[in-house]
Specification:
By secondary structure, the protein is an alpha+beta fold. Helix content is about 50%, strand content about 10%. The strands form two sheets. The protein has a five-stranded antiparallel beta sheet. A two-stranded parallel sheet has the order 6-7. A hairpin with a 2-residue loop joins strand 1 and strand 2. About 35% of the residues are buried.
Length: about 375
């Protein structure tokens, strides 16, 4: 399926042959049930020794398919739809969320919980659930920020890996999911906020039907948009009261500092550089840094700006409580045409209202001692 286009004879023959295997398995009258756990493949309760260390077991599990069940009378259409979903997860391609949610499938799959319980979904769930903590992703981002803070170059490979992992988490079921971290400690705000902005930026880019490569590029830009804050003292970042004039100047320098850091990596980070520099500039010319010659900002900067403000307002800070979902969307709506690009802001508000039930609030993992 990765090699041949839709309806290509070779692709159709491969799907036909695989589908016949499912028909043969179901001829015994049972529902075929597979579980993929590390190096083990289990059929029902029977470990398949000949498939021990099968590389596809790990690849399926990493794509959120640890348990796979075929109900009675799987149609070829359902089977091909399932294969297309697997292909999209493995390649991190954008897939039609609307089509996926409308399809009632006879193939159920999901992640195995820590105690053996399984989340299996054949149709959209009323609320989003998530079976992992994003702990590895958070640790990777904290390490990345520590490297930059100590004067090292930005490890782009780790940033891209975090974004890939977030993209898989967002498509961990048959409906899109927005895994947003809930802040526990104020001193971890930059890490949590950056992860959330990456998720929201990718979600909005996908909602706007941008190509999959652009979705991931926007995700990297969202993840690194506040990288300039790693040089700001923690007591300023977490100050509960009003900032002094000197502290405000320091805080307002983070877009320029972040853009400079990204430029110094000598990597292909042009979009991330622009977004880091522009994400606090309003479309009416306000915000910072102040442009000496007024110009239009990049579309990605405008997109990340909306996501940035949404997550900031929805998060409890030392100087205020978190805003409600309704109050935050109301603020964004009011600021259309002033602070935010109207069409992008309108799309974000529509997306959040449409996908409100798909937001999975994930507890922020505790910082590891090093």
């Amino acid at each position: 399926m990765a090699l041949y286009r839709d309806n290509h004879p070779a692709r159709e023959r491969a799907i036909d042959a695989a589908y016949q295997q499912i028909v043969d398995l179901q001829s015994g009258g049972e529902r075929p049930l597979f579980t993929f756990l590390g190096d083990e493949v289990v059929f029902g309760r029977l470990p398949l020794r000949e498939l021990k260390a099968w590389d596809w077991s790990q690849r399926l599990a990493q794509a959120g398919i640890q348990r796979l069940e075929f109900e009675d009378s799987v149609s070829r259409e359902d089977f091909e739809g399932f294969l297309e979903e697997v292909l999209a997860r493995l390649t991190l391609s954008a897939i039609s969320t609307e089509a996926r949610q409308m399809r009632r499938s006879s193939i159920r799959f999901g992640a195995v919980g820590l105690k053996g319980e399984t989340e299996l979904a054949a149709e959209p769930l009323p609320t989003a659930t998530i079976s992992f903590s994003l702990g590895e992703e958070v640790d990777a981002l904290r390490w990345l920020q520590g490297e930059v803070q100590s004067g090292g170059a930005i490890p782009l490979a780790e940033a891209a890996a975090v974004v890939r992992s977030l993209a898989v988490a967002m498509h961990g079921g048959q409906q899109i999911m927005l895994p947003l971290l809930q802040l526990k400690e104020f001193d971890q705000y930059t890490t949590t906020h950056s992860m959330n902005v990456a998720v929201l930026s990718m979600a909005l880019a996908e909602f706007l039907a941008l190509p999959a490569a652009d979705v991931r590029t926007f995700g990297v830009a969202g993840l690194l948009h506040d990288i300039g804050k790693v040089k700001i003292p923690l007591e300023v970042l977490t100050k509960p009261g009003k900032l002094t004039d000197a502290e405000r100047v320091l805080m307002n320098e983070h877009p320029v500092a972040g853009a400079r850091m990204l430029l110094e990596t000598h990597e292909d980070l042009d979009l991330a550089v622009v977004v880091a520099y522009e994400h606090h500039i309003m479309i009416n010319g306000g915000g910072y840094p102040v442009l000496h010659y007024p110009r239009d900002c990049h579309q990605a900067s405008k997109l990340v700006h909306v996501c940035d403000v949404y997550d900031a307002l929805r998060t409890r800070r030392p100087y205020r409580e978190a805003w409600s979902f309704e109050k935050t969307l109301g603020y964004l709506d009011e600021r259309k045409g002033l602070e935010f690009e109207p069409e992008l802001c309108g799309s974000f508000v529509r997306m959040m209202k449409q996908w409100e039930g798909h937001v999975a609030v994930v507890a922020e993992p505790a910082a590891k001692a090093h």
